[in-house]
Amino acid sequence: MNRIMLAMAAAATVATCSVPATAQVNVRQLNQERNIDAGVRSGKLTAREARNLRAEVRAIEHQKRVYQRNGYTRVEKARIHTMQDRLATKIDRLKANGRRG
After folding, report:
1. Angstrom distance (rounded) from CA 96 to CA 76
2. pLDDT value of position 26
3. How far is the CA of 99 from the CAs of 16, 57, 83, in angstroms?
4. In the predicted model, what is the mean pLDDT of residues 11-39?
5. CA distances to 7, 35, 63, 65, 89 from 98, in Å
6. How many angstroms separate the CA atoms of 16 and 37, rounded?
7. Confidence at residue 79, expressed as pLDDT on a 0 to 100 scale
8. Distance CA 51, CA 58 (A)
C-alpha cells in the first residue's frame, strides 16, 4: 500500500513539474484579457485604451505562435514574459490614470 501511495505521489510531482512553458504564458495572457475586460466594465478604462491594450494582447499572441512553431527556447520565453510584464504594467497604469470610460 505504501509503495502505491509513494508511486502516486511521485507521479503527481512529476506531472506538476513538467507543465509546458506555453501553459504559464497562456494563463497569464488570459488573466490580462480578464483584467482589461474588468477595467472596461468598471469604467476605469476608456474604449480607446481597451482597444489599444487588446491590440497589444493580440501582438503578444502572434509572437507566441511564431515562437511555438519550432518550440520555445528560454530566450523566447523570456521575451514573451517581458512583453507580458510591460503590458501588465501598462494595464495597471491606464486603469489608474483617472480617465473614465
Report:
1. 31
2. 83
3. 42, 21, 24
4. 74
5. 55, 17, 31, 35, 16
6. 30
7. 94
8. 11
DSSP state of 70: T
- Secondary structure letter of residue 77 according to DSSP: H
Angle between helices 47-68 and 74-95 (to 10 degrees): 170
Cell of 30: 488570459
Instruction: Give the tens place of pLDDT for each residue, 81-91.
Output: 999 999 999 99
Closest CA to 95 of 30, 37, 56, 44: 44
User: What global pTM score does this model have?
Assistant: 0.72
CA 31 from centroid of its chain's CA atoms: 6
For the purposes of burial, counting CB atoms within 10 Å of the CB of 83, is it exposed (0-12), middle (13-18) or buried (19 or more)?
Answer: middle
Q: What pLDDT was estimated at residue 16?
A: 46
For residue 99, give the C-alpha cell. Answer: 480617465
